[in-house]
Structures are given as structure tokens and as C-alpha cells.
Amino acid sequence: MPILSHHLDQSRVMEIQSSSSSRASSKRKSAIPCPSTKLIICIFLVLTVLILLHMQPSSFFPSTKSNFMSKLRDSVTFLPLKDLRFTNTAMEGNTWFMSSLNDTREENEAEYLYFPSESSKGRLLCIKGNDTEDGTKNSYALAWPECLPDSATLLSGLTFVSDTYYDYENLWHGVSAIAPFVGWSLKNGCSKPTRWVLFHWGELRDRMGTWIHNITQANFGEVFIERFSGEGGDGPYCFEEAVVMRHNVGKMGKERKLHVFDMLRCKARLFCGLSPGGRGKEVNRRGQPVIRLTLLMRRGSRSFKDPAAVITVFARECAMVEGCIMEVSQSEDLSFCDQVKVMTNTDIVVSPHGAQLTNMLFMDRNSRIMEFFPKGWLELAGVGQYAHHWMAEMSGMDHTGSWWETLGEKECPNPQNDLECFNFYKDGQVGHNETYFAEWARTVLNQVRTSKLEKKTKRSQAKSNVCKC
Ligand SMILES: *[C@@H]1O[C@H](CO)[C@@H](O)[C@H](O)[C@H]1NC(C)=O
Ligand SMILES: *[C@@H]1O[C@H](CO)[C@@H](O)[C@H](O)[C@H]1NC(C)=O
Ligand SMILES: *[C@@H]1O[C@H](CO)[C@@H](O)[C@H](O)[C@H]1NC(C)=O
Ligand SMILES: *[C@@H]1O[C@H](CO)[C@@H](O)[C@H](O)[C@H]1NC(C)=O
Fold first, then answer.
1. pLDDT in tens, 206-244
2. Phi/psi zone of residue 69: left (φ > 0), alpha (ψ -120 to 50 degrees), beta?
3. Which atom of ligand 4 is found nearest the CA of 434?
4. What would the pLDDT profile of 247-258 be if each residue is shown by its tens digit?
5. How does DSSP assign 32-94, residue by residue?
6. CA angle at residue 177 from 241 to 229, to 5 degrees?
7. Given this model, what pLDDT does residue 437 score?
8. Which pLDDT tens digit goes with each residue over 328-381?
9. What is the distance between the alpha carbons of residues 222 and 265, in angstroms, rounded to a whole number?
10. Where does 291-456 sit in CATH, by number?
11. Are 367 and 347 in contact (CB under 8 A)?
């Protein structure tokens, strides 16, 4: 019974409140219209009052203010998220995503947009954007918090809004989309987002691939991806605070990238229950430095044609170097944390070209990469084939080079058409050259051993490996 009476009390209170507030608002209304018979007196009074108030009508007449507010509300203009005028230069300048807004540029940082800010004149970012197939059907606008567009939902907290030309599934592409937010957070008191809004060409995306999801979670905690399907229907939704990234790592400087990848590595190791500092200095029974060589294999496209032969070559070279331990891992079979663990325990990774190599970022800095391509890539793939050279540079690794299977005679159906021809070869398997692989392995193993021996004699520098955020 006490619960019920409390309930009744509450509803009575609410009744009283609502009736008193409706009285208040009706009082306010009745004060405005002047009866026509007393019009002249009314105008006189108004003028007198205006003079007395030093010409500040808006503070005295709520209707004038609310008129003004409703005009502001109606003047909020939504523009398409994807601006087709920039179709041919979608990767340059402002990009076609929110094309009317300029990025904030700070030395060495990824370019970003922040709302509300001085440059947005205190306005919030609003998005009406649940279309998943056509970015021109989604739209954005800026609005003052006091005059959000009608039926807008205000989403509180910090929102990370990303637009990528690529996707949030592929390891390489996904991590390049996430990295600038890690950089922004590092610089801004390690702030964590309440939600993510993901776009590709202005089209809404409602998930990240598992690996991307996990690395994001490792950095920022629980990942909530906004789908614009809450109580506010398809929107608009306005964000209390929003950071927008639309160039991936873009203009981020080399040092900044290294910090971001240090952070990604450190957080992933903690997330997976490993020591953030890695395995430290590992020596074998004879006190010699341990060198861990990992063959990171894949199945299907771009797998080794004869994995057993490749394993034999590397195993033989490894056996000839004091302290060398070899492991063969099948990348598809590893969970996110298994991948982090394998790579934390790797000094040299041997792997065919593919997204699995993005895992290199979990190795200690200055670890080594040996990459292998099927035929056709050197001749036809263009700069994209250097993606893992860039990844190595960003994450502070040593890419020791690539081996390309030679193309020889072009066997593609239409040898004149390079693109068609590349698509023909792209997902082929990777052969091997025993002599070349053995010599290369020997060189890299000896380099790693030498550098480990040098480090062993140097006094170990006490380096803090605690994650910065
Ligand atoms: C964006 O930058 C361009 C070129 O610097 C400038 O002309 C334009 O006025 C800027 N737009 C806004 C909205 O600040
Ligand atoms: C990785 O993310 C998936 C969902 O994308 C989730 O099911 C899984 O539990 C995550 N792994 C860890 C270790 O949290
Ligand atoms: C977007 O929202 C509208 C209104 O709620 C709904 O009818 C539509 O199906 C949604 N579109 C997508 C792609 O979810
Ligand atoms: C294999 O590699 C060796 C050493 O680089 C080279 O001399 C030889 O021509 C290569 N063999 C083939 C078939 O390409």
C-alpha cells in the first residue's frame, strides 16, 4: 500500500504541476493580444515600456523571442552528406563528405572537424542519415543547441563520426579509419566516445568487422554503433559533441602515427591479458637471445602453392641460427587475441601479401617483415601493393622487402587491358624460389641476432610501457 499511495501522490504532484504550468502559459498568452478598443493605449504603453527598458524588447516579450527561435529552427538547412560535385576528387581536399565544411588542421595531426566549436560558431552537428545505399540521400546540418530542428533528437556525450573511402571490415582499411580517432583522443585527455557513427561514401554502416571491433574496444571500451533507428525514427539526430574524421590517417605526421600505433599495441596486449611491454628480453638455456620467426599463412587466394616446401626452407635456416624458434600459424584460425599473442611473440613475420599482415602492429617496434606476392602484382598492382610498407612505417617496423613471383608471359585473356589482367592474377597463389628464400631468411635472421646481441650488452633502458591512456 505505501507504494501505491506514493505513486498516487506523485501523480497528483504532476497534475498540480502541469495545471499550474498551463495556467502560467495561458497567462503569458493573454498578456500579448491587446483588445482592439484599447489599441491606442496599448501602443502607448508598449512604447513607454520600450523606452524604459532601453530598447530591449526581446527580454520583455517572450513571443518575439520564441518567434525568432522558431525562425532559427526553420532556417537549419540540411545538405547531402555526399556531394556529387566532388565525385572525381573524393579523396582530395574536403572530400565529398560534408563538402561545405573545412577541416581543422594542426601540425602532425590528422585533419578533423569538431562540433560545437568556434569555427561552427557554437553550432552542433546534426545528421539525418540512415540510408545504407545512397550517400546523397543522407544529410547534415549545423544548428544552435537552443534551436535544434523540429523533431530532432539530441544525443548526449561525445560521438565519433567516421567516413571512409574503404570499409570497416578489412583489417588494413579499418585500422586506418580508427587510428585518427585514437590520435585525437591521445591529444584530448584520452576522451572516449559514447557512440560511433560510421559512413562509407556517406552511406551508413552499422557494423565493424570482428577484428576492428575488438581493437576499437581494446582502446575505447564498449563500442556502440549508432544505427539511427531509436525513438527519433530516421532523425535528425544532433550531437552534443562530435568529432568527424574523413581522411583516415591523412595528414597525420610520422611521430604521431608511431604514438597511435604504440597505443593500439599496448591496449590490445592489455585487452588480451598480455604484458603491455611484450615478452621482454628472452634468452635460451645457454643465455643466448631467442629469435622468434613466425610463418603467418593463409588459405585460398594468395596462399603458398606449396606451403610444406616453404616451411622446410625457413625451418632449415632457423635451425642454423642459435636461439631461433619457428612457429607456423594459420591466420584464419586465430581469434583476435590469438593474433595479438602470436605477434607479440614474433621478431620476424613471414607472410604472403594480405590483410592478415596488418597484425604486424602487435609486434615490438623494429621487428621485421618478409612479404610474398603471386605473379602479376609487381607489374600490374600499382602503389596499393606497398600498403604493408606503409603499415610498417606507421607502426615502427622494419619491412625487409618483398618477393614477387615473376610474371613471364602474360597469360591473362586480354593482355592489353592491365586492370582486367590484374584482376585475373590478383588472387593467385604464391610459388617459391628455394635459393632466394633461404638466402633472404639467413640475412634477416643474422641481422636480428646481431641487433639482439648488441642490445644484450647495452644497459637496458628502463622504458615505461604503460599505455598512455
Ligand atoms: C574553406 O576554405 C576555403 C579555402 O581556404 C575558403 O575559401 C572557404 O571560405 C572556407 N569555408 C568555410 C566554410 O570556412
Ligand atoms: C571481438 O568482437 C566480437 C564482436 O564483434 C565479440 O563477439 C568478441 O567477444 C570480441 N572479443 C573479445 C575478446 O572481446
Ligand atoms: C530509415 O528510417 C526510416 C524511417 O524510420 C525507415 O522507414 C527506413 O526503412 C530506414 N532505412 C533504413 C535503410 O534503415
Ligand atoms: C631463384 O633465386 C636465385 C637467387 O636470387 C636466382 O639466381 C634464380 O634465378 C631464381 N630462380 C628462378 C627460377 O627465378
1. 999 999 999 999 999 999 999 998 888 888 999 999 999
2. alpha
3. 1
4. 999 899 999 999
5. SSPPGGGHHHHHHHHHHHHHHTTS-HHHH-HHHHHHHHHHHHHH---EESB-GGGGGGTTSTT
6. 55
7. 98
8. 999 999 999 999 999 999 999 999 999 999 999 999 999 999 999 999 999 899
9. 18
10. 3.40.50.360
11. yes
Q: How confident is the model at residue 18 (pLDDT cuts 50, 70, 90)?
A: very low
Ligand lying closest to the C-alpha of residue 203: 3
CA separation for the pair 64, 58 (Å, rounded): 6
Gap from CA of 252 to ligand 2 centroid (Å): 29
Q: Write the CB contacts of 92 (distance below 8 Å, at least 6 apart in sequence).
A: none
What is residue 295's three-state secondary structure? strand
Q: Pocket around ligand 2: residues whose beta carbon is below 6 Å from it? A: 210, 213-214, 336-337
Helical (H) or strand (E) element with 174:
helix 171-187
- How far is residue 308's CA from residue 293's CA, in Å, rounded to a whole number? 16
Reported as a single tens digit per residue, the pLDDT across 151-190 is: 999 999 999 999 999 999 999 999 999 999 999 999 999 9
Q: How many Å from the N-terminal Cα to the C-terminal Cα in the chain?
A: 51
The tens digit of pLDDT for each residue in 119-132 reads 999 999 999 999 99
Cβ of 138 less than 6 Å from ligand 3: no
Domain ranges of the chain: 76-252, 291-456
Provide the grid cell at 14. Answer: 504532476
Asked if 312 and 318 count as a contact pair (C-beta separation under 8 A), the reply is: no
In this structure, are strands 291-297 and 195-200 parallel, antiparallel, or unpaired? unpaired
Cβ–ligand 3 contact at 233 (below 6 Å): yes
- pTM: predicted TM-score of the whole model, two decimal places: 0.83
Which of 160-198 are b and which e, b meaning 16 or more Cβ less than 10 Å from the residue's Cβ? bbbbbbebbbbbbbbbbbbbbbbbbbbeeeebebbbbbb
Residues in the chain: 469
Give the pLDDT of residue 55: 52
Beta strand residue intervals within 334-462, DSSP E: 348-352, 368-373, 398-404
